[in-house]
Amino acid sequence: MEMNQKDYQKEKEICSKRLAAYTEAIQRITLEKSSKVIDDLVEERHRQGLTQQDIADMTGIRTSNVARLEKGKRIPTLIILQKYASALGKHIEVKVCEGTEE
């Protein structure tokens, strides 16, 4: 079945919107799941009396990026989380589960 130019453009737009919505949903879910870990790390940083600058100095992560991470403005990679945790004498443990239920 042949698709004319108008149908092709319409289908392309639908796919683009679907991909954008999917990407947004993944980012939202990832941020929600990582926010608990981040909250725990920030709490530990405060408990140890460390500043964001201290974390930046120990990890090599820019202070502005530490602030964004702590405010939930960026989704951290596991490497960044591990660097932050290591600076606090902690570690990140990843559990891989089948399915999407917890």
Can you characterise this structure?
This protein is mainly α and 102 residues long. It has a single domain, classed as 434 Repressor (Amino-terminal Domain) (Orthogonal Bundle). The chain is built from 4 helices and no strands.
Write the layout of secondary structure elements.
Blueprint: H1 5-47, H2 52-59, H3 63-71, H4 78-87
Distance between the termini: 44 Å
Count every helix, treating DSSP H or I runs of 4 or more residues as helices. Answer: 4
Largest sheet: none
**CATH first level: which class?**
Mainly Alpha
Keywords:
102 residues, mainly alpha, 434 Repressor (Amino-terminal Domain), 4 helices
Write a brief caption for the model.
With 102 residues, the chain is mainly α. It has one domain (7-87): lambda repressor-like DNA-binding domains (434 Repressor (Amino-terminal Domain), Orthogonal Bundle), CATH 1.10.260. It contains four helices and no strands.
